[in-house]
Design a protein that fits this description.
The chain is mainly alpha-helical. It has one domain (about 25-335, about 365-460): Amino acid/polyamine transporter I. It has 15 helices and 2 strands. Helix 7 runs parallel beside helix 10 (about 265-295) and helix 8 packs across helix 14. The protein has a two-stranded antiparallel ribbon. The longest helix has about 40 residues, at about 105-145. About 65% of the residues lie in helices and about 0% in strands. Belongs to the amino acid/polyamine transporter 2 family. Amino acid/auxin permease (AAAP) (TC 2.A.18.2) subfamily. GO terms for molecular function: symporter activity. It is found in: Cell membrane. Its main location: membrane.
């Protein structure tokens, strides 16, 4: 909080501990930056890709994955180049970058899009983690009692457990202190993705019964009308868009890169590494998952119990998901925490409750800065997202809606508009025209994906009872 924003000259501290903007020296490297991005990218979105490929088929599915990855990589490069203002000053948040390059009402529109999306992702991760926790318990139940037993469990108690853990983790002061947590989370994402496609390979190689696949995905027929096909295809595009949803925290991640080097160059390398790795894993999980399950691919291919054995490996994969999302939740929440705390510090600068921090010695960890305001505000936020996760536990449609809502404004529109402004690209020039065409295409995809997900949510709500979620 305020301890991290004061200038060294004001606090009387050693200048060697501060960057050129007066903030405590940043320590981010290519490795930690890549880990932050991978933690943000390879999230719960990977689990729905087999289902998404089943809706799109062998042709459109891979094309969609590659297309979204290329667009995300390109616009992330644009966003990285817009990070510093014309006078060379760093921007600390996505809204700061928009303010520096565009200004006007677009700052407020960016804030609404970014923070509503971050809140939605927090809710989505709470849902996903609880589903994986339940899957571990159900897997052991199946092992003991047999697969014919339902072994159904309420998600609510596991959403609450996840919330309690997040209350503790949310006391980590800022993004700069998340490096270890992000590295662990990145390793976990590799682990469960690897287990997922290894199990898919084993299922395909072992025969496991005939599965139906197709060039255009699930066919129109007895089990699916042409209208359902259209809407499910739209929802699948939203799921893939969500799988690449990390632009909301890209600026905050770039702000962790140490000074003395070109932050945008480090960010570009980290983005390329992270997206290449992520797309490889997405291809393996999505395509192999579709090959293993065919048209019956579950919405979450590690908790839909297409895989029953070896049960301990399925349990391990879901445990890795839980550990990963514990860190990923923090990566997406820190911008919200920082925004509220900065605003509160300016609004009530004379309040000790808001601004004062207490240094507490921690065994083997050095000192820890504790704040009563941080404890109260962040705990309230976690409780809020936990309650909403218990109220609306719809995985695929919720993920699709989040992807659709964030993809065009935050991943495409603002990076393109800011780069055009910063590079002073002439209106109606060739570069300006093709960038606007790209933005229009992505807007159309986002609207279709949002429509498909909203329809799915409406259908789910017709038979759903609040706080009675069962897996």
């Amino acid at each position: 909080m305020i301890t991290n924003t004061k200038f060294g000259i004001e606090t009387g501290n050693d200048y060697s501990k501060f960057d050129d903007d007066g903030r405590i020296k940043r320590t981010g490297t290519l490795v930690t930056t890549s880990a932050h991005i991978i933690t943000a990218v390879i999230g719960s979105g990977v689990l729905s890709l087999a289902w998404a490929i089943a809706q799109l088929g062998w042709i459109a599915g891979p094309i969609a994955l590659v297309g979204f990855s290329l667009i995300t990589w390109f616009t992330s490069i644009l966003l990285a180049d817009c990070n510093r203002s014309e006078d060379g000053k760093r921007n600390y948040t996505y809204m700061d970058v928009v303010k520096s390059n565009l200004g006007g009402m677009k700052i407020q529109l960016c804030g609404i899009a970014q923070y509503s999306n971050l809140i939605g992702i927090s809710i989505g991760y709470s849902i996903t983690t609880s589903i994986s926790m339940v899957a571990i318990k159900r897997s052991n139940c199946f092992h003991k009692l047999g697969q014919h037993v339902g072994c159904h469990e309420s998600n609510n108690q596991f959403i609450i457990i996840f919330g309690i853990i997040q209350v503790l983790l949310s006391q980590i002061p800022n993004f700069h202190k998340l490096s270890v947590l992000s590295l662990v989370a990145a390793v976990m994402s590799f682990a469960y993705s690897s287990i997922g496609f290894a199990l898919s390979i084993a299922k395909v190689a072992g025969g496991g019964g005939h599965v139906e696949t197709g060039l255009t995905g699930i066919p129109i027929g007895e089990n699916q009308s042409s209208v359902d096909k259209m809407w499910n295809t739209c929802s699948a595009l939203g799921n893939i868009a969500f799988a690449y949803a990390f632009s909301t925290v890209l600026v905050e991640i770039q702000d962790t890169v140490k000074s003395g080097q070109s932050e945008n160059k480090v960010m570009k390398k980290a983005t390329l590494i992270a997206i290449l790795i992520s797309t490889l894993f997405y291809m393996l999980c999505g395509l192999l998952g579709y090959a293993a399950f065919g048209d019956k691919a579950p919405g979450n291919f590690l908790t839909g119990f297409g895989f029953y054995n070896p049960f301990w490996l399925v349990d391990l994969a879901n445990l890795c998901i839980v550990v990963h999302l514990l860190g990923a939740y923090q990566v997406f929440c820190q911008p919200i925490f920082a925004f509220v705390e900065r605003w509160s510090s300016k609004k009530w600068a004379g309040s000790n409750f808001i601004t004062k921090e207490y240094s507490i010695g921690m065994p083997f960890c050095g000192s820890f800065n504790f704040s009563f305001f941080r404890l109260v505000w962040r705990t309230t936020y976690v409780i809020f997202t936990t309650i909403l996760a218990m109220l609306f536990p719809f995985f695929n449609d919720f993920v699709g809606l989040l992807g659709a809502a964030s993809f065009w404004p935050l991943t495409v529109y603002f990076p393109i508009e800011m780069y055009i402004s910063k590079a002073k690209i002439p209106k109606f020039s060739f570069t300006w025209i093709w960038m606007q065409i790209l933005s229009l295409i992505c807007l159309t995809i986002s609207l279709l994906a949002a429509a498909g997900s909203i329809r799915g949510l409406i259908k789910s709500l017709q038979t759903f009872k609040p706080f009675h979620s069962v897996s």
